[in-house]
Amino acid sequence: MTSHLSTHVLDATAGGPAIGIDVVLERRQEAGWVQVASGTTDADGRIGDLGPGQLPPDTYRLTFAVASYFAARETASFYPEITVTFEVEGADHYHVPLLLSPYAYSTYRGT
Fold first, then answer.
1. What is the C-alpha separation between 102 and 41, in angstroms, rounded?
2. For the chain, what is the domain count?
């Protein structure tokens, strides 16, 4: 079974994949956020199967733990973690890429 969600982290300053970043997927509940899945970016900066085959429509967030990534490269950075909150509305695959640098980031809904 293929996951409903994937992500890809690219390091804009290094010009390549961001390897070894821990990522947590959570779903919003009345009592707070509940972890659904977690993973670590691979040699291509990807997590291809993050979570179950189907995510029910709801609000989710991905938290990328980037402090240790930059610390390992002896690079100062502004963000210890980056959280991207998004809504799942249907059965389509969701791909949430992150373009990363020490003092900025961007994201979008990919394909």
1. 17
2. 1
pLDDT tens figures, 15-47: 999 999 999 999 999 999 999 999 999 999 999
Q: How confident is the model at residue 2, as a pLDDT?
A: 67
Residue 71, classed as helix, strand or coil, is: helix
How many alpha carbons fall within 13 Å on the CB side of residue 75?
Answer: 18
CB 67 within 8 A of CB 100: no
Buried b (16+ CB within 10 A) or exposed e, 49-74: ebbeeebeeeebbbbbbbeebbeeee
Q: By the 8 A CB rule, do 84 and 96 touch? A: yes
- Check which CATH number belongs to the domain holding 83 and give it: 2.60.40.180
Q: Closest Cα partner for 44 from 71, 14, 8, 73? A: 8
